Each structure stands twice: as structure tokens, then as C-alpha cells.
Amino acid sequence: MPVTQFAVEEKYEYLEGFGCYHSSEAVKGANPVAINSPQKPPLGLNTERISGSSFTAPRAENQQTWLYRVVPSLDHADFGTHSVPNEQSVADKQLKLTPNAFLWQNFPVPADADFVSSQQLIAKNGDPTTKTGCAYLVFSATKDMAEHEAFFSSDGDYLIVPQAGTLDIQTELGRLLVRQNEFAVIPRGIRYRVTLPTGLARGLIVELYQGHFQLPELGPIGSSSLAGVRDFQVPKAYFDGKIENGVAVINHPDQEWTIVTKFAGTLFSCKQTHTPFDVVGWNGTYYPYKFDFARFCVLGSVLFDHPDPSIFTVLTAPSNRQAGTAVIDFAVIPPRWSVMEGTYWAPYFHRNCMSEFAFPVVGDQSPGNPLSQGRRFLPFGGLLNNPMVPHGMDPARHEEARERSTAPEKVDDGPFFLCLFETEATMALSEYALKASGKKVETVPKL
Ligand SMILES: [Fe+2]
Fold first, then answer.
1. 326 and 271 in a common domain
2. Residues that constitute the known binding site
3. How confident is the model at residue 92, as a pLDDT?
4. From the annotation, which residues make up the binding site for Fe cation?
């Protein structure tokens, strides 16, 4: 079955479909019929809209959602700067550029942190204030977010890839359980709280400052394969409240909440006296979602040579600078059959105008796992090759690839999913990432 056999059982139900107009109600009748902003919405609710695109964006790219909630989001005190123990999480002011390749054995992580406070910037291009580019972050959460705290990024959509553990994410639009071998996208502006049902959870994030993710075009592939539209799972409406005398109320009125946001690369927070999880019904095209890597219908060559790795693209955020290029292509190279005759099966030596960042999602992370011994990618490592940095196999692997049998073989060791973030722009490294590499190299500051 092309579905991961997860150790942690699914606990939520989902809507299905990527890029669809979805509608969900925690209480029947919460979404008004036909009219979006009735004078008096159902169940005593307030109408609120979240716009993920400009109003006049083309229909295929237009992302708007209507929320019907107990208390409007604007009911909060002013934001002030928000301190977390790991100051690197916001230290994107001293980025450095280098033409050298970077291989990380591991990214050091704090011992005591939640999903937000554990985040460390690895690399970045562009600027959230001009809605250009993206950033790569690592997270390693050892504890739940505070009981009455929620987070949202004002800067970008978060594509979250857990490499270990499970994230239970309560969003304004409902709940998502995101386990190793799945990934989730939380669009900018959507508030959420992350708890850890199985303890430590760590992984990588790409924060997309520009536009949103979409499915790649399929061209000659036809109308299906790669990531299927119906395999994206979208949360159903859920709220911390109940109906009393035909009116929706929250469970604990006057409870103080802290809302943390990342705004222009800096964390801010504010207080409010109501839960942000009070959306009783919603409908629209702007929502979080998740996907199980095992559902990816991988394609490949069946005679000779490799297709370009774009064949592994799960989601893309196209650039508006040049057709066919991307702010981010998110690709996964999953377990698959290799059958190419007389072909060098390993990646050939190459240089690329794009910047490539690769990292693994490894099933067995124990030190005794042969995958952890002598592989290029340790369970929590990563590899960055900026534009035109030459890369390929080392001499030993090159020789092995030249001599190996090319009888058909299932590549399924782990399982081992190799994930790729590929972007059109050069990625500048943070101080944290440079230090974590343990590599002494010449760098120049990013202007
Ligand atoms: Fe490459």
C-alpha cells in the first residue's frame, strides 16, 4: 500500500484535495449559505476574512478564506519584541556568502525548547518585507508550546518536514497530526500551536516569502502521477468552545493568551484575552495541509539515463522572474526501483544555476543503522550547493557506481527519503550554520 505504516496512529479526520475550495463546520450551520458577510452571521459568530493573495490574482492563484469565529483576531494588545532563549532564531542580520559546498553532519539543537524557540536560521535569500525569496530553518522541539501560546509567521508560508517525532498542530482552521514521513504547509498568517505527543520532534522548514506552493505542471506525463491532488489532507474545523442557547461561546473566556509572530525576520508577541482557536466554520482556498511522502507516485527512467531531478518535484513556488524557475522547488527522492541499463546510477557530476539544499528523512535513526555509517547523509545532516558549485560522487562511490551491476534493484534502505529544497537565488548562510559546519572557509557578508 502506498501509505506509510506510521507508529503513531492518526487521530484526526481531514478534507481531501489540493488547491480546492473547501468548506468545513465544527457546528452545523456555522457557514452562512451564499452570503459571505451577513449582517448577523449564524450562531452569533463574527465574519473575518484572511487573504493569502491579492483580490485580483488570477482565479487559479487566488487564495481567500472566510472565517466565522467567536472573537475577531483584532482584539489584542500591541505587539512588542519577543525574546526566546535561542537568539540565533532571529539572527538573520549577519548572513555570509561563500562559493564553497557545505556538508553538515548534524545541526546542533537546544536541549530545552519548543517548536518556536528551537528554530534556527540556516540560510536565506530575499527579504520578507519585499516578499522575495525564502529561508531554511531547523527546529528541534523537546516540549510542547506553552498551553496558551500560538504562533504565526507574518513573513512566509512554513513548509515543515519532521525528520523525527510527531507534531500535533492545532491551527485556527482545525487540527493536523504530522509525523515523520509526512510534511505540512501552514500558510502565513494562520495561527497555530504545536504539541509533541511522542516527545522530541525535529526537522527542517522552508519559509516561503514569495507567493504560495502549487503542484508542478505535468507536461507530457499527463494528468496524474507525482503528488496527487486528492492525497493532500486539509484540517476540519474545530474550536475550543460550545453552543449555548444557539450561540457559540469559547470554553474559557478571559483566559490570557500569548500570540507570537515572526515579522520581518524578528519575533514579536502580544497578549489577548481569548483563544485564537475559536473558528467554528470556514470556507475558502487558503488553509493548511499535509501530505504523506509514501503517496508520492515516483516516476523514473525505464531504459537508460536519468531524467532531470525535477521529476521528483512535490510542490513548487514559481518565480515571477523567469519562466520555469522557482523560488522553491520542494522535491523528494523516495524508495524506488532502479532499472536503467548501462547507466551510471549515481548522480553524475554536475553544476547547477540553482541552489540545492538536500537533507534526509531516515526511518531508522539508531547509531547501529548502516545508513548512519559512512553515508553522505547522516539522519539529521544536510548538504548545500550554491549556484555553480561542482558536486557529485566522491572517488570511492564514483568507482562503485562505475562497476556495480545494473540489474533491476529496489532502492529502499530505511526507508530513506532524500528531500531537496532548490531555489533560483544564492542562499546566504547564518552564523549558526557556518559554525555548525565546523568548516573554516572564506566568506563575504551579504549586502
Ligand atoms: Fe545537484
1. no
2. 350, 356, 391
3. 62
4. 350, 356, 391
pLDDT for residue 363: 74
Tell me the residues surrounding ligand 1 (ion) with CB < 5 Å: 356
Q: Are 138 and 282 in the same domain?
A: yes
Binding-site sequence positions for homogentisate: 391
| 267 and 358 within one domain | no
- 167 and 241 housed in the same domain: yes
Its domain, for residue 239, covers: 14-91+112-292
Find the 166 Cα to ligand 1 centroid distance in Å. 29
Q: Can you give the three-state secondary structure of 349-418, one letter per residue? A: CECCCCEEEEEEEECCCCCCCHHHCCCCCCCCCEEEECCCCCECCCHHHHHHHHHCCCCCEEECCCCEEE
State in Å: Cα 348 to ligand 1 middle. 9
- Tell which wins on pLDDT, 4 or 164: 164
Q: List the CATH number of the domain containing 369.
A: 2.60.120.10
Beta bridge partners of residue 141, listed in sequence order: 201
The answer to whether the beta carbons of residues 18 and 187 sit under 8 Å apart is: no
Residues classed as catalytic: 306
Q: How far does the centroid of ligand 1 lie from the alpha carbon of residue 199, in Å?
A: 34
The pLDDT of residue 413: 66
152 C-alpha to ligand 1 centroid (Å):
32
Q: Are 300 and 307 in contact (CB under 8 A)?
A: yes
- pLDDT for the residue numbered 7: 85
Whether residue 199 is found in the same domain as residue 303: no
